[in-house]
Design brief:
single chain, Nucleoside Triphosphate Pyrophosphohydrolase
Length: 197
């Protein structure tokens, strides 16, 4: 069975989801209706190897927003695009991931960010060890974290911080010397609650 088939089965088996899925919607901080949110998409690219991994990027320190943070490849939808098309385009632009190499499983539960985005993660399988090239303007590096490490609830640490005078709760996941947190970690937690891996 291919990795894409395994992921598709795990997604179908876990599709019932979990009533406690994170939405990122903290009404104390952001009461905007869904129509006022900017649609975006990210690619959760799982590498086909004995111990599958997930491709993540470290953003450059020169970006105006989220400098230095860890993220999935992705961004806003262009006019006429759906989440899958946007995720594939952004991954190609940010890390030179060829669309033809991606086996799309499908979109997972959308995540609403406090900064006004409705982000749809797109789950996909990709070959291992592709020659990925980070876009100098946006991406400092591309790296891989084992899927089982990300999905393990023991590695999904709850944390909180003050933001605009309110306590904001979030998740963080540590891998080697990297700290994955915020929306990226929340989308991973959501995936772990929906994927029967």
């Amino acid at each position: 069975m291919t990795l894409a088939e395994r992921l598709a089965r795990a997604w179908q088996a876990g599709r019932g989801g979990d009533a406690s899925l994170l939405t990122g919607d903290d009404r104390e901080l952001d009461a905007r209706p869904p129509a006022d949110l900017t649609p975006a998409a990210v690619l959760i690219a799982v590498t086909d190897r004995d111990r599958p991994g997930v491709l993540l990027t470290q953003r450059t320190e020169t970006l105006r927003h989220h400098a230095g943070q860890i993220a999935f490849p992705g961004g806003r939808l262009d006019p006429g695009e759906d989440a899958v098309a946007a995720a594939l385009r952004e991954a190609e632009e940010e890390i030179a991931l060829p669309r033809a190499a991606v086996a799309v499983i499908g979109p997972v539960a959308a995540y609403r960010t406090i900064t006004g985005y409705a982000v749809t993660p797109v789950l996909a399988a990709v070959p291992a060890d592709l020659p990925l090239v980070p876009s100098e303007a946006e991406v400092a590096s591309v790296f891989e974290v084992p899927l089982d490490h990300l999905l393990d609830p023991a590695n999904q640490l709850a944390a909180s911080a003050q933001w605009r005078g309110q306590t904001r709760h979030y998740y963080e996941i540590h891998w080697q010397d990297r700290r994955i947190w915020g929306a990226t970690a929340a989308m991973i937690v959501n995936l772990s609650r929906q994927l029967a891996w």
